[in-house]
Specification:
It contains three helices and three strands; from the N terminus they run αβββαα. 65% of the residues lie in helices and 9% in strands. It has one domain. Helix 2 crosses helix 3. By secondary structure, it is mainly α. Bound molecules: zinc ion. Zinc ion (ZN) binds next to helix 2. The site of zinc ion has 7 residues, from helix 2.
Length: 98
């Protein structure tokens, strides 16, 4: 019984993490205790999911990748904004139909 409940909770946490998965993870690998920089195989000691430590490591040690990540984030935001606008256009045209 409790195993079933635990696995359900884990699934929900994973899907929530995937939705909010930051682009910073392109540059890191994590275990439960450490985060490793893929670019230099350097272990960064921080709790799993502490994004600001990872960002600042990129910012200090890999400026190019940090810039690249920021560019990608901007692009992703712009695309999400576009999707929202298209979505509201579609729903307003549906309203006019009725
Ligand atoms: Zn690094």
């Amino acid at each position: 019984m409790s195993v079933y409940r635990n696995s359900r909770r884990k699934t929900r946490q994973q899907s929530r993490q995937n939705n909010k998965k930051s682009l910073v993870w392109n540059y890191f690998e994590s275990t439960s205790m450490t985060v490793t920089c893929k670019l230099r195989k350097k272990v960064i000691k921080c709790s799993n999911g502490n994004m600001s430590n990872m960002s600042s490591h990129l910012q200090h040690d890999h400026r190019q990748q940090h810039q690249e990540m920021k560019d990608n984030e901007e692009r992703r935001k712009a695309e999400a904004e576009q999707d929202k606008q298209v979505g509201s256009l579609v729903s307003s045209s549906l309203l006019y139909d009725h």
